[in-house]
Specification:
The chain is mainly alpha-helical and 204 residues long. It has eight helices and no strands.
Length: 204
């Protein structure tokens, strides 16, 4: 499954989705169009909700096409060598679903940070750091730091795309499947909720 969903391919996808999610709002703040938007729709919570729904739908489609295409292409190549994996095999469908949902999760995280920071470069840097850099700062060999590492989107995705159980004698603390799904849901929910609370109390 790692051949179908390589890190080198999905790390740029995370960065692009998160950056587009951020630009979806910081571009309006930078150009001043946010004043026009809030004049047309005074309820800022509705503006945030609408952007979140559109981004989630768009990037779910992009993520699904990318994940299914990656899986089908990889298995077509691997099946000729007797190493193909069927979608019905244990963990295969989960890996495809997790890879498809990775893009909307990152996009919504970027959107939430965009509403909070409201500066293009700073938001993109913060999004990239949260998605790709922070996991590397927390070792999985120590229990407490591993808990923080497990709470990262990148770590959750790598666990959900693994189709084998953790090695019993591994020195690393591995996240659970259920916990990784919770991380997937928690990050966009937290980012959008915080943005909603802040945007209602800020001037444009």
């Amino acid at each position: 499954m790692r051949d179908a969903f390589p890190l080198a391919g999905y790390m740029p996808l995370m960065l692009i989705a998160g950056s587009v999610g951020a630009i979806a709002i910081v571009g309006e703040y930078g150009s001043g169009l946010i004043r026009t938007t809030t004049a047309a729709v005074p309820a800022r919570g509705e503006v945030l909700a609408a952007k979140a729904v559109v981004l989630a739908a768009l990037w779910t489609v992009v993520g699904a096409v990318t994940a299914i295409g990656s899986f089908v292409t990889a298995q077509a190549l691997l099946s000729g060598r007797g190493a193909g994996v069927a979608l019905t095999e244990a963990g295969a469908f989960r890996a495809v679903a997790a890879s498809a949902l990775l893009a909307p999760v990152c996009a919504l995280l970027g959107l939430g940070l965009g509403f909070l920071i409201r500066h293009g470069a700073a938001t993109v840097v913060a999004t990239a750091a949260t998605l790709l850099l922070l996991p590397g700062f927390f070792s999985r060999t120590e229990y407490l730091t591993a808990l923080i590492n497990h709470a990262m989107v990148y770590t959750a995705w790598t666990r959900l795309t693994d189709t084998w159980p953790p090695y019993p004698r591994s020195p690393f603390h591995e996240p659970s499947i259920a916990g990784s799904w919770v991380v997937y849901a928690a990050w966009p929910l937290l980012a959008v909720t915080l943005a909603l609370l802040v945007v209602r109390r800020r001037d444009v």
